[in-house]
Amino acid sequence: MKIVTIIGARPQFIKAAAVSRAIGRYNDQTSNSEHRTLNEVIIHTGQHYDEGMSAVFFRELEIPEPLYNIGIGSGPHGQQTGRMIEAIEKLLMTEKPDWVLVYGDTNSTLAGALAAAKLHIPVAHVEAGLRSFNRRMPEEINRVLTDHLSTLLFCPSQVAVDNLAAEGISSKRAPDSSPLTPQILVVGDVMADALQFAANKVDTNSDILNCLGLKPHHYLLATIHRAENTDNPERLGNIMSALSELAKREPVVLPLHPRTKKILTASHPSVLVSDSLLRIIEPVGYFDVIALARSSRVILTDSGGMQKEAYWLKVPCITLRDETEWVETVETGWNVLTGADEKKISNTAQNFTPPAEHPSLYGDGQAAKRVIDILVERTADMRK
Ligand code: UD1
Ligand code: UDP
What we know:
By secondary structure, this protein is of the alpha/beta class. It is built from 18 helices and 13 strands. The strands form two sheets. Strands 3-2-1-4-5-6-7 form a seven-stranded parallel beta sheet, sandwiched between helices. A six-stranded parallel beta sheet has the order 10-9-8-11-12-13, sandwiched between helices. Helix 15 (about 305-310) links the parallel strand 11 and strand 12. The longest helix has 20 residues, at about 10-30. The radius of gyration is 21 Å and the shape is globular. The two termini are about 15 Å apart. Uridine-5'-diphosphate binds near residues 225 and 289. Uridine-diphosphate-N-acetylglucosamine binds near residues 50, 106 and 139.
């Protein structure tokens, strides 16, 4: 059975690492007959390409080397997505996989799903059903379209299943009645698997707190990269002012996404050379970011992945957005939406007392195994 995995952006490397590891385990445990072995072919779209945005994750998380890197790089949405589709289509026609596996909501996700669906290759979408209900987000467009193109929709929670149902996507017929009939499954979140893998390795693989001279629980960790923040000067200005204000009291570490760095270099160059406790650093690898996250007092972020990591690590989270897909984290009281409201960000960060309750969310760290078991089972059904 052949699976083509299509990835291209930082969070996808982290998610795919968990599933590639589950494929490896499956192959180790299964007899070596060619029929039963899973052959994963990785296509890297090249959407992210800096060492600190791509290669570091392959190294740290032991992700198999992509067979193809189509090197699309940066560009406007239509150009970037269109070039990806063209290149992926050619590779899929050569590789003829049983499945195309895509993750999350980036342009690489949509390009992979579209190229596959037009070739009648079933698409499996990991992190299906997430919605912000904000169609101005490129990610929302990518998610909606990818879900509507997918055969296997792997959801992290019941909320995601309900979102799909509201759009008319449900497991309507017997799953084996057609190779392309949608099937929706709650498997949990593969990012929990990734975090469990890293948790055992952070102590020996990260010295970042020492390097930055940080005392555990006496600093804040921030990340900013969403277009709605970076591309809106007022929002970005407010967020940076709030972080600068907070940095008068305690260190604020900001590993800066290249998108944000490019914009700040043009619009707020003084922030980048500031000598306050606002510590702007290059993006860090996974072990370093988890080391920083787990010992921070509060995380301030517009990242999807980091909202969940904050929750799993029991660190209060401030989400610098007006809405979130990860609504359960807000409902529990561990995540507060502040948008780009300077005062609200600052006040919430200073006064955040997390609730005593911390219910389990998004699975048990075994999502990747479920994804693989279901893919194998569904393939067997399709071949009957
Ligand atoms: C993309 C995803 C977003 C995801 C994020 C994860 C889309 C539409 N957006 O946003 O959903 O949350 O990745 O980080 O797919 N750049 C570099 N070096 C790199 C990569 C990017 O310098 O290795 C710069 C380029 O100037 C580029 C800009 O960052 O134009 C934006 O990159 P792009 O991949 O288009 O979008 P992200 O903002 O990274
Ligand atoms: N991350 C990282 N280094 C950093 C910042 C973030 O490894 O400098 C990790 C973070 O812990 C999470 C993932 O990248 O696992 C999230 O990616 P990102 O925020 O770029 O995208 P999103 O999740 O918002 O799509």
